[in-house]
Amino acid sequence: MSADADVVVVGAGAAGLAAAHELRRAGREVLVLEAADRVGGRMATLRRDGFVIDTGAEQIPERGYDATWRLLADVGLGRDAVPRIGRYVAMWRDGRARLGVAHPRGLLTGAGLPLRARLDLRRLLRGAPDLDHPERGPAGTVAEVTAAYHPDVLEHLCGPVVTGFFGWRPDRSAAAPFLALMASIGPSSTWRTYRDGMDTLARALADRLDVTTSTPVREVVADRGSVRLTTAAGTELRARSVVLAVPAPAARALHANPGPDETPFLEACTFTPMVKVHLLLDRRPASRTYLVAVPATASRTVSTILFDHLKHPDRAPAGRGLVTLIAHPDLAPALLDAPDAEAVDTLGAAAERFVPGLRAATRDAVVHRFRHGLPEATPAALALRADFAARPVGPVDYAGDWVGLVPCSEVAVRSGRRAAARVLTAVPRRQPA
Questions:
Q1: pTM of the full predicted structure?
Q2: Strand 5-10 relative to strand 236-244: parallel, antiparallel, unpaired?
Q3: Which class would CATH give 5-42+199-269+379-426?
């Protein structure tokens, strides 16, 4: 049976666009279908009243993101498009923000950590696996692996980072993916952000591809010789190959007949929800840091506070401020379906302790929810990853950071490149009539 399309990529986030870019470079005809009305996925940006609001990812490191930097070069974006943030990351402890987390300064000041905890942290990161093979790292959850070290390593560093950055519960998520990422990305003094919003790369890629937004896919069925897709509007489309670049739970729901070597990993790849509240302020609160991680001992309501106007000055109009609050994993599930006003009031009230005057300065707010926020990377999923990666090539492939079980855009890009390579191996290029 002839196909209507050569390759269809479902999902226009970092993974899907990277896959489509590689396939297009190889001469394949690629159609990208995106359910949302904009590209970027968890690297999307909302522009409103002069504010540039990053609804998902916040920064990009110079180190460890080789595939991302190559992709940026491919689309003609240099490092001037991704300037350094140049601000500290802090940890809240004993009533104040302690500067120097993930920064060379922290080795001297401790960023609130005692000397023994700092030495233990170096020992912990020394044995970290690489980003491509987290399953080769230490077994166990974040809480289990850090139990052998000074208690502050979990309570005032690893715990707040995984809850705030990934939405993880340290007692459920595997330590190895987290350690692989921390060892890879280098000090926070080298972290950058996209000048024009975190969706900059996604928009540049989409401009070079055939992307259709506002088109949810309802079902994907692998037939002999082709793959049948049905959209939510009832339109049917056949493709020679399909790449599902969506979260694992969504991929499992879409793919009607995955192979037996795919199903166990797909079902084990659970996700944590994330809720972000962006406060549009009439002034800029005083802060020496652009990000404050809040340990659970200080709050189980808000886990991270970001001063976006310090991350890059163009995130807010002159004289105004933009502060983002991320819900603690204990609270995020309850806020997924709560009214926006409830999310704003709950997180705003909790953040007032850390940023006095925040609510009085708030003039508007945006609430963004990710039901499938980031891959949870449980030990059970980690144990299945190697077999999933070694599975035979089929007509339907997958891309996303969940494929690598390390929650970051770099692993999403790498997964997109690998999915493209598998497609090119499986189905030769269609010859023109």
A1: 0.94
A2: parallel
A3: alpha beta
Helix (H) or strand (E) holding 115: helix 115-126
* First CA to last CA distance, the chain: 16
325 SS3 class = strand
Residue 413's CB is within 10 A of a number of other CB atoms, namely 28
Q: At what angle do helices 14-25 and 66-74 cross, to 10 degrees?
A: 60
Per-residue pLDDT tens for 231-255?
Answer: 999 999 999 999 999 999 999 999 9
Tokens for 19, please give them: 């896959």
CA distance linking residue 114 with residue 98, whole number of Å = 12
pLDDT value for 270: 97
The b-or-e profile of 289-315 (16+ CB within 10 A means b, else e) is bbbbbbbbebbbbbbbbbbbbbbbeeb
Q: What is the pLDDT of residues 333-376, one digit of tens each?
A: 999 999 999 999 999 999 999 999 999 999 999 999 999 999 99
**Strand, coil or helix: what is 146?**
helix
Helices vs strands, H then E, count in the chain: 18, 18
In CATH terms, is domain 84-192+271-375 a member of 3.40.190.10?
A: no
What residue type is 116 in one-letter code?
Answer: R
Please tell me if the domain spanning 5-42+199-269+379-426 has the same topology as the one spanning 84-192+271-375.
yes
Beta carbons within 8 Å of 374's beta carbon, 6+ residues apart: 42, 166, 167, 168, 271, 272, 274, 401, 407
Six-digit token string for 36: 């949302």
Ranges of each domain in the chain: 5-42+199-269+379-426, 84-192+271-375
**Contact status, residue 57 vs residue 311, Cβ threshold 8 Å:** no
DSSP-assigned beta bridge partners for residue 231 = 217
The CA dihedral of 178, 179, 180, 184, to the nearest 10 degrees, is 110
* Sheet of 321-327, strands arranged across: 96-99, 88-93, 289-293, 302-307, 321-327, 271-281, 362-375
